């Protein structure tokens, strides 16, 4: 509670006893103010922070009263400024690297000015997750015998073909492995049936067979086929097993390993998770098929688990054997109740990436034989059972025919894993390209105090935050207070779904918070968003968030908080809420907040949070009335305004083709895309002439001819924390893939498909549920753990496709489960990009085009020649929910996050410099000491008027931070490429702009280098401008350098929403280095405007109703700005444009921003403060 003065609210500090522990907390109820309970829950968090941090310096007593009086103060047209000190800061590496670079440079500057450089440390805790560096360079792996080049099992054109691709150790290619003997009987007392219990007290490890049932506590009923095995048996796990095709019973999938555990019920009963011992008997993979004398049931089965073996189920029945048993168990019935949820499973021994961990081979077990699942019940209280499961397996699957053999080690888990070729290669290349960055970050991890750095390959920052880093309630020095944060990524808001207030800020502002400064903000209006009803069986959480995004864009919530309430919230899982909060920047709000409730607590348990911590969270939030029941309308707070949504109105949707809030119903997608082709160029138009709308272009790919046309899908990516954090849509996608493969559908080989989970937990439950082989079969194999396609790290697409697109001006498409689809962001050759649920990503990949009417047009032709429609393979909501309930368990979170900082051996082996000051390498093209503090003095520099500046760029509406500072690949003909080539680098080593944010020379040259940037001076897309004095057309950087050499400053003209999109500090730093002194725009995105101020750039805004067009400004005029001697927030100043003068608003919104500007920027202010 340190501060500049005593806390005037210290009398509110009270004790709270939780279990055996006594904590303290600021009891806001002791304010004895009735207004408190009417405050929105998000505003209560701001109030608590102000009360706890009040020192009458950064946070003043009047600030507390202003927040308490929110209902009146938020109506003030001038805005009421309040400070906010978040509990922590979160960063990703694109913004984290430049932040650490700035910290290192600030240390040098403090030392040069005679101060103590060791003072430059994060004061506020900071977490940095390295997740933005990995790219989809490799996706589908290839084999020389598989011309389609599919996943580790190839893309077999004839589903059911009796071969599989297996990779042999050390081999450079793949070979076909044929099945061996089938139908071999094993003796009941075979040593293959040895069972090793996890608890010797339950039963002894005696062989289990028909004659050995007495060794168990209860009888075992073994379900096996009654007829010898015949027909096509697939050796590879990406292919299904088919027992006798003439069997009279329908195809019924048996349960996946460690799931669908029926204990206490006979076969055919509803599976549950109660009591007694569990046993499984092996069906050996390819070698033997045990057939037992009794009891037997005829059945066709398909394995669902991606491990290297398949297990037939055995049931424990409490008491005597059941008198009757149905012949066909129904594995799709839901559990009896939530009391049987798999969160009762307290531990699972898991192998890498979710496959079960390998142990030693039992004696006498022949090579290639597989393991036996053993389990023992452990339950102190019968009504709350607990199963402790473990797996005894072989030391290696390398000698098992048909298994995807490899000698690759998953960097995430340090051990051999299946289907990891693309993952391995992408991460190898990531380390190769980013070696200098990673060494630098490792120096930061060692040299900077109070900073946690999560190594690459661990997941996406927001998903790791949700699943692991978020505290929900902090406990510091025994004082409890709400978790809150700011982050250097606009989608920091995802954590709002967990009941944590947080939002994105610029990297510059985040650095100030790390140095102990408060965030200065205008007390926001809070829009109450009431949710009612229930989702239809076809809608997903992705459809909900796309609907909300469009709705709130129409309402207008920029600069406002949105808080969700109403009985419909109770229908949303925590993951659904996080998905909705994730896209908060897309609907324009500062936060999209869901207060903590019972669903939050349930998720915390599911994600393996400490039980004591969970108890603290629940008791503390209830004590300060920040815990709510959405079904109780009496708890609804006051809002500035309210809007509502009935979940029953949500329909399957996409958004695009160029903006995330342009929602399109799937039913209207075909018509909408065709209209976009012909519409004039804009957010919903490509301006194609009518005679060019129907065009087919043949091309040859890997020896076969295909055709492209407008609407062809060339990228299909299941990516981004928006959706990969949500098990319902991920498992739904897996189930859809399973049905698609079973129907005989496949994805065209030229479509770049990929799956990039947001954490290793996703890999666990996808494999655990058995859907991974089917995703892999369609090309959606795991390519990396990080923010990949969604941020433009989509990697290359095949050259024949690029040539066909570019030569024929085709509007080809990307479909991704992301949150951003601005033009030029996903890939330079996908002019149309659509956001969609993971299920729809697969659907459009199967269709191969977006101009399809799923209701009337089939996805493709099945193995029997029948038309297969999307409705035929779409999984039911009840099935998805059941699978999620059974397959997302705490042990997965425990396994993943137990090694979160040490799980990457490459990272562990990096040798970083030691010492307080970083030894800058002058030859590095990744890390370079920035020039921001060159010539800095202890005294304020004073403000200078802008005289006769030229307009560097004349821009229109919705210029994004991607346009200003792209994160994607570096074009070979760009200024940045020429600079890197001058340093001896080849295009292969250019990497991306995002990865080179630690080098100002690259980033300055990359400013406004987006190929989709439209400059009115040029009239067409491209990173070019006019040098006005000469009329010469130049790259933007080259023009800026020409102006600098001539002694001219420059300004930028822009339209509405300048700087929208991801928060990106280089979108402000880059223009600063180009010599930009001011921007004159119609409106600004909140974070970007703040970043401009933080770099000493003046954000000017036209008066209401005025634009460059209405004022007759062409941009060819010179511009002069006379700055006042005394600055005030929101003041209007004269701007001379050519021969006349106009008025413009100077968008310094707070007194703190004025202070930053007068110091030349926020970092300069912090340095002077530290001296």
From TrEMBL:
Residues 977-1102 form the Aconitase A/isopropylmalate dehydratase small subunit swivel domain. Residues 185-211 have a biased composition (Low complexity). Residues 70-136, 418-848 form the Aconitase/3-isopropylmalate dehydratase large subunit alpha/beta/alpha domain. PROSITE patterns: ACONITASE_1, ACONITASE_2. Keywords: 4Fe-4S, Iron, Iron-sulfur, Lyase, Metal-binding. PANTHER family: ACONITASE/IRON-RESPONSIVE ELEMENT FAMILY MEMBER (PTHR11670). SUPFAM superfamilies: Aconitase iron-sulfur domain, LeuD/IlvD-like. Belongs to the aconitase/IPM isomerase family. It catalyses: citrate = D-threo-isocitrate. InterPro entries: AcnA_IRP_Swivel, Acnase/IPM_dHydase_lsu_aba_1/3, Acoase/IPM_deHydtase_lsu_aba, Aconitase/3IPM_dehydase_swvl, Aconitase/IRP2, Aconitase_4Fe-4S_BS, Aconitase_4Fe-4S_dom, AconitaseA/IPMdHydase_ssu_swvl. Residues 174-211, 318-344, 358-386 are annotated as: Disordered. It holds the Pfam family Aconitase_C. This is aconitate hydratase. Its cofactor is [4Fe-4S] cluster. Residues 333-344 have a biased composition (Basic and acidic residues). Its EC number is 4.2.1.3.
């Amino acid at each position: 509670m340190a501060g500049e003065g005593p806390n005037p609210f210290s009398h509110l500090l009270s004790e709270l006893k939780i279990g055996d522990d006594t904590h303290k907390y600021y009891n806001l109820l002791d304010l004895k103010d009735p207004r408190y309970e009417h405050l929105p829950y998000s505003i209560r968090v701001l109030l608590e922070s102000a009360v706890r941090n009040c020192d009458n310096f950064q946070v003043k007593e009047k600030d507390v009263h202003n927040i308490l009086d929110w209902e009146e103060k938020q109506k003030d047209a001038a805005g009421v400024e309040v400070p906010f000190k978040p509990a922590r800061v979160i960063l990703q590496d694109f913004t984290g690297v430049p932040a650490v670079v700035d910290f290192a440079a600030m240390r040098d500057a403090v030392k040069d000015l005679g101060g103590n450089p060791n003072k430059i440390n994060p004061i506020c805790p900071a977490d940095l997750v390295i997740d933005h560096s990995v790219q989809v360079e490799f996706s589908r792996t290839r084999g020389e015998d598989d011309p389609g080049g599919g996943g580790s099992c190839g893309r077999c054109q004839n589903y059911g073909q009796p071969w599989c691709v297996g990779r042999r150790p050390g081999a450079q290619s793949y070979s076909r492995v044929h099945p061996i003997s089938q139908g071999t009987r094993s003796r009941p007392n075979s040593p293959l049936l040895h069972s090793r219990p996890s608890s010797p007290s339950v039963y002894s490890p005696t062989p289990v067979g028909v004659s050995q049932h007495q060794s168990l506590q209860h009888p075992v009923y073994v379900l096996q086929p009654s007829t010898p095995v015949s027909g096509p048996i697939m050796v590879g796990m990406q292919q299904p097993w088919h027992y006798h095709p003439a069997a009279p019973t329908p195809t019924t999938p048996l349960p996946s390993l460690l799931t669908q555990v029926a204990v206490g019920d006979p076969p055919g009963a509803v599976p549950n998770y109660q009591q007694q011992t569990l046993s499984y008997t092996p069906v050996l993979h390819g070698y033997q098929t045990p057939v037992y004398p009794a009891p037997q049931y005829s059945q066709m089965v398909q394995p669902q688990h991606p491990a290297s073996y398949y297990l037939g189920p055995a049931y424990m029945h409490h008491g005597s054997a059941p008198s009757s048993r149905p012949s066909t168990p129904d594995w799709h019935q839901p559990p009896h109740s939530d009391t049987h949820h798999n969160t009762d499973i307290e531990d699972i021994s898991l192998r890498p990436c979710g496959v079960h961990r390998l142990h030693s081979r039992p004696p006498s077990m022949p090579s290639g034989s597989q393991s036996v699942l053993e389990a023992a019940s452990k339950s102190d209280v019968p009504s709350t059972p607990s199963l402790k499961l473990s797996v005894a397996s072989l030391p290696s699957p390398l000698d098992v025919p048909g298994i995807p053999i490899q000698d690759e080690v998953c960097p995430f888990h340090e051990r051999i894993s299946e289907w990891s070729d693309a993952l391995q290669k992408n991460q190898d290349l990531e380390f190769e390209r980013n070696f200098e960055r990673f060494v630098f970050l490792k120096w930061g991890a060692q040299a900077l105090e109070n900073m946690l750095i999560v190594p690459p390959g661990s997941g996406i920052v927001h998903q790791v935050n949700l699943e692991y880093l978020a505290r929900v309630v902090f406990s510091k020095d025994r004082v409890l207070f709400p978790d809150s944060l700011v982050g250097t990524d606009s989608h920091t808001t995802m954590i709002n779904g967990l009941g944590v207030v947080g939002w994105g800020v610029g990297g510059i502002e985040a650095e100030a918070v790390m140095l102990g400064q408060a965030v200065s903000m205008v007390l926001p209006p809070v829009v109450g968003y009431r949710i009612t009803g229930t989702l239809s069986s076809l809608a997903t959480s992705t459809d909900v968030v796309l609907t909300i995004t469009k709705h709130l864009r129409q309402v207008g919530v920029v600069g406002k908080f949105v808080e969700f309430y109403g009985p419909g919230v109770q229908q949303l899982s925590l993951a659904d809420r996080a998905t909705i909060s994730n896209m908060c920047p897309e609907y324009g709000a500062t936060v999209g907040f869901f207060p903590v409730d019972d669903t939050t607590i349930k998720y915390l348990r599911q994600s393996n949070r400490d039980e004591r911590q969970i108890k603290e969270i629940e008791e503390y939030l209830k004590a300060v009335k920040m815990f709510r029941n959405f079904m109780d309308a009496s708890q609804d707070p006051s809002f500035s305004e309210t809007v509502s949504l009935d979940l029953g109105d949500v329909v399957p949707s996409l958004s695009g083709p160029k903006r995330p809030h342009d929602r399109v119903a799937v039913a209207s997608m075909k018509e909408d895309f065709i209209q976009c082709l012909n519409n004039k160029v804009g957010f919903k138009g490509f301006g194609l002439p009518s005679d060019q709308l129907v065009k087919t272009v043949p091309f040859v790919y890997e020896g076969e001819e295909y055709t492209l046309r407008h609407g062809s899908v060339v990228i299909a990516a299941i990516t981004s924390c928006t959706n990969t954090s949500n098990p319902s849509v991920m498992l739904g996608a897996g189930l859809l893939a399973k049905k698609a493969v079973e129907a005989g559908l496949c994805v065209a080989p030229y479509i770049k498909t990929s799956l990039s989970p947001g954490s290793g937990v996703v890999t666990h439950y996808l494999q655990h549920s058995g859907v991974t082989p089917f995703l892999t079969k369609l090309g959606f194999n795991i390519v990396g753990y990080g923010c990949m396609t969604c941020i433009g790290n989509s990697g290359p697409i095949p050259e024949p496709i690029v040539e066909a697109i570019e030569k024929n001006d085709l509007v080809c498409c990307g479909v991704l489960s992301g949150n951003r689809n601005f033009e030029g962001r996903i890939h330079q050759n996908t002019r149309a990009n659509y956001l969609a649920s993971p299920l729809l990503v697969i659907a459009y990949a199967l269709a191969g085009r977006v101009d399809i009417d799923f209701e009337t047009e089939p996805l493709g032709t099945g193995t029997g020649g029948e038309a297969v429609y999307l409705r035929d393979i779409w999984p039911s909501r009840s099935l998805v929910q059941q699978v999620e309930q059974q397959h997302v368990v705490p042990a997965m979170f425990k396994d993943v996050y137990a090694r979160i900082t040490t799980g990457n051996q490459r990272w562990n082996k990096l040798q970083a410099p030691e010492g307080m000051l970083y030894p800058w390498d002058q030859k590095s093209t990744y890390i370079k000491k920035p020039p921001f503090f060159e010539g800095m003095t202890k005294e304020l520099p004073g403000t200078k008027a802008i005289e006769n500046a030229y307009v560097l760029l004349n821009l229109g509406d919705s210029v994004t931070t991607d346009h200003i500072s792209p994160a994607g690949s570096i074009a070979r003909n760009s200024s940045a490429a020429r600079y890197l080539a001058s340093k001896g680098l080849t295009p292969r080593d250019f990497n991306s702009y995002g990865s080179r944010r630690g080098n100002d020379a690259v980033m300055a040259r990359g400013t406004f280098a987006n190929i989709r940037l439209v400059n009115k001076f040029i009239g067409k897309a491209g990173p070019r401008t006019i040098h006005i004095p000469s009329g010469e057309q130049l790259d933007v950087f080259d023009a800026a350098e020409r102006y600098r050499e001539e002694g001219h400053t420059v300004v930028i003209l822009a339209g509405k929403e300048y700087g929208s999109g991801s928060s990106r500090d280089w979108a402000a730093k880059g223009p600063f280095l180009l010599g930009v002194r001011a921007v004159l725009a119609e409106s600004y995105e909140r974070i970007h405007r703040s970043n401009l101020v933080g770099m000493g750039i003046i954000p000017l805004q036209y008066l209401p109703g005025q634009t460059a067009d209405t004022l007759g400004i062409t941009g060819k005029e010179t511009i002069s700005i006379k700055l006042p001697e005394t600055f005030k927030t929101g003041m209007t100043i004269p701007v001379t444009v050519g021969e006349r003068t106009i008025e413009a608003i100077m968008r310094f919104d707070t007194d703190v921003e004025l202070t930053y500007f007068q110091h030349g920027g926020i970092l300069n202010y912090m340095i002077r403060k530290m001296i």
